[in-house]
Write a structure and sequence with these properties.
Radius of gyration: 20 Å
Strand order of the largest sheet: 1-3-2-6-8-7-14-15-11-9-10
Structural class: alpha/beta
CATH architecture: Alpha-Beta Complex
CATH superfamily: Amidase signature (AS) domain
Number of strands: 15
Mean pLDDT: 97
Helix content: 25-40%
Distance between the termini: 21 Å
CATH topology: Amidase signature (AS) enzymes
């Protein structure tokens, strides 16, 4: 067995269950890794070393494993409530906020035996291309600290990539686990909306926001999802959410698209994606194909703006002076939308969903880049152009990921093979709703046969 901080969550859980490693040893190894690196990388907003040690003591005293993640140190993104542990949402407005209750996902992780080491950095309320806020500044990319780790789950991606934890929670609205995973060379899962219940979902039937996970391998993502999946009577989307576990064909049919026909994607990202598709063709039948995504960018802009105005409009009215310009812009974008604007966006979304469904009549998976560009300097707050072509809004660079969010299909991100001294880049693998098991099965093929797997940064 290698050093503890090199083990995956699955390997570590197995070692702890066999009592080859104690929970306390696992916690101390990862706290030591954090102490040596996080002053440079700023992955964590809050660290709960004492709480983690107490939890490890309970795990070590147990006569049998508490659950599948027994004694495994993890991190939770600071947009999600943790009882008794500061949850700031990346905002000065909530710098002293300590929730009284766990979010349902956090409660499920604890019941599975996971030990929360701390909360990872996020832009204020999750708005921002760079993972930075006024509480602790930017989370730096472990492959080049001058570059961004991506938003908004950048803290979680860096914590995993650098070995501070083997597994981290994230959230994803338009690409917030996928972009950081691509930038930091780790794997991620954005499950089917409703797979993990969101009982506090403001608009119960909408599918843009989900919990997700980041890890160094597919097995860990499957393990994390298995302990957090499940319904809740307060989330209408979660009712009846079942997994399609039909086996993946020996040679899967893969539709590939560099841009869904509408997304701005940089030349360098296209080249990296094309090279990955050449490797993919060794294990699957690859056919260039895309659903009809006309109007997707405009539809997502509208629906995102409406959601943000609904969730944060009161803050703008009562505490505007305390908000950053980025947060204000995001809220105001939805303030003047009409009912017709919203209905038009939903109508377009429905048409795109049906086009995705039609594509999956002839393909097992759809593959696309996990980011439109490679990481850029931390000092640049927004992506305003790609390859010299101006973008209409600061969120348009996310189109290659938010198109999948728009239709609510599950998506696995894996790092593509790369040479030495080459920045990481990721690939999205999309399946029909409810097909996470099939995604994980195919993801393991890519890891084991093509080398689509994590490589630790040279820290």
């Amino acid at each position: 067995m290698g050093s503890i901080d090199m083990l995956t969550a699955t390997e570590l859980a197995r070692a702890i269950a066999r009592r080859e490693v104690s929970s306390r040893q696992a916690v101390e190894a990862h706290l030591a890794r954090m102490a040596s690196l996080d002053s440079r990388l700023a992955a964590f907003v809050t660290v709960d070393a004492d709480g983690a040690r107490r939890a490890a003591q309970i795990c070590d005293a147990a006569s049998a494993p508490i659950g599948p993640l027994h004694g495994v140190p993890i991190a939770v993104k600071d947009l999600t409530d943790t009882a008794g542990l500061a949850t700031t949402y990346g905002s000065l407005l909530f710098r002293d906020h300590v929730p009284a209750e766990d979010d349902l996902l956090v409660a499920r992780l604890r019941r599975a035996g996971a030990i929360i080491l701390g909360k990872t950095n996020t832009p204020e309320f999750g708005f921002g291309a760079v993972c930075t806020n006024r509480l602790c500044g930017p989370t730096r990319n472990p492959f080049d600290p001058a570059l961004t780790s991506g938003g908004s789950s950048g803290g979680s991606a860096v914590a995993v990539a650098s070995g501070m934890v083997p597994l981290a929670h994230g959230t994803d609205f338009g690409g917030s686990v996928r972009t950081p995973a691509s930038f930091c060379g780790v794997a991620s899962i954005r499950p089917t909306p409703g797979r993990i219940a969101l009982p506090r979902r403001p608009l119960g039937w909408d599918m843009l926001a989900t919990h997700g996970f980041l890890a160094r391998g597919v097995d860990d993502l499957e393990l994390a999802l298995s302990v957090c999946a499940g319904s809740d009577p307060h989330d209408p989307l979660s009712l009846g959410s079942t997994d399609d576990d039909r086996p993946v064909p020996d040679r899967a049919r893969i539709a590939v698209t560099p841009d869904f026909g509408v997304a701005p994607v940089a030349r360098e990202a296209r080249a990296r994606f094309a090279a990955a598709c050449e490797a993919l063709a060794r294990v699957a039948d690859v056919v260039p194909s895309s659903p009809d995504c006309g109007g997707a960018i405009e539809a997502f802009r509208t629906l995102r703006a409406a959601h943000i105005a609904n969730a944060y409009g009161e803050l703008l009215r009562t505490r505007r002076a305390e908000l950053t310009p980025t947060v204000i812009w995001n809220i105001e974008a939805g303030a003047n939308l009409s009912v017709q604007d919203y209905l038009d966006a939903e109508r377009r979304r429905t048409a795109i969903y049906r086009s995705f469904r039609q594509l999956f009549n002839r393909a097992d998976f759809l593959v696309a880049p996990a980011a439109s560009i490679l990481p850029w300097p931390n000092e640049i707050a927004d992506v305003t152009a790609i390859d010299g072509a101006a973008l209409e809004t600061s969120i348009d660079y996310l189109a290659v990921t938010f198109i999948v969010s728009l239709v609510g299909f599950p998506v696995l991100t894996v790092p593509v093979p790369r040479g030495e001294n080459v920045l990481p880049f990721g690939m999205q693998i999309v399946a029909p709703p409810g097909c996470e098991s099939r995604l994980f099965a195919f993801g393991r093929v890519l890891e084991n046969e093509l080398g689509f797997s994590h490589r630790r940064p040279p820290l």
